[in-house]
Design brief:
The chain has 258 residues and is α/β, with parallel strands linked by helices. It is 46% helix and 14% strand. It contains eight helices and seven strands.
Length: 258
């Protein structure tokens, strides 16, 4: 299938590892000019060198998602225009919601919702001019089914999902779609943190925790980052032009709801 996104420009957040990196590579393979965004410049340089480069113009921006205003300024200073925005940020630390400090909610709200918002505001004017835009938020299946031990994440992810749906309703008339991809357990550094945290809190071995998590999905395994990225890349394409305002679980069937 020709996704018809050759020579489009994409801004991919959290793109030095995991799903973000896999998405950046997947878009580049489709002929997209990719701008990577993350806080570690050395890692950004390394990923930049891994991107397929078929006469494409790839670049990177160093930015910290704890500071939305600085992020916004750096995106605007780059003077690049984008047809595709991939909002993707590492998840909050685990733990029961009752024990969470207010600062944990505030930090997560800033990194996820506020940064998504300023980035969307920055790229949408060009998208409107082009009559083409794709905003894709990589969130979590917790927006459909809250996950035990991830209280702050469950709360903030739900806020992002509702923000996204509202934005989809407002921007659809301009040829801009806004969708969410909901990864299940995916083989990333983030998953390793969750596994180790569960093992420490429950007294179970790491292998026991891994087997329990794998058995929660009919597929009986973890996703590869590339498998989640494939859904993101499709939603970014011309072929997904009438898909708007939805949540797409990529979880091997783990989520129980329809």
């Amino acid at each position: 299938m020709n996704l018809e996104i050759q020579n489009k420009n994409a801004l991919v957040c959290g793109s030095t590892q995991g799903i973000g990196k896999a998405t950046a590579i997947g878009l580049a393979e489709e002929g997209v000019n990719v701008t990577l965004v993350a806080r570690n410049e050395e890692k950004l340089k390394a990923v930049l060198n891994e991107l397929p480069n078929n006469n494409q113009n790839h670049s990177y921006i160093v930015a910290d998602f704890t500071n939305p205003e600085d992020l916004k300024n750096k995106i605007e200073a780059s003077k690049n225009n984008y047809h595709i925005l991939i909002n993707n940020t590492g998840g909050p630390a685990g733990g029961p919601v009752f024990n969470a400090e207010l600062s944990e909610f505030e930090r997560a709200f800033t990194m996820h919702l506020k940064c998504n918002h300023v980035l969307t505001q920055a790229v949408v004017p060009f998208m409107k001019e082009q009559g083409y835009g794709r905003v894709i938020n990589v969130i979590s299946t917790s927006v459909k089914q809250p996950l035990d031990g991830l209280g702050v994440s469950n709360t903030i992810r739900g806020a992002v999902a509702n923000w996204s749906k509202t934005m989809a309703n407002e921007l659809g008339q301009f040829g801009i779609t806004v969708n969410n991809v909901l990864p299940g357990a995916t083989s990333t550094e983030r998953l390793n943190e969750i596994i180790n945290n569960k093992a420490n809190k429950t007294g179970k071995s790491v292998d026991e925790v891994i087997n329990t998590m794998k058995n929660a999905a009919p597929a009986k395994r973890f996703a590869k980052p590339e498998e989640v990225a494939n859904a993101v890349v499709f939603l970014a394409s011309e072929r997904a032009s009438f898909i708007n305002g939805i949540n797409v679980p990529v979880d091997g069937g783990r989520t129980k709801s329809l």
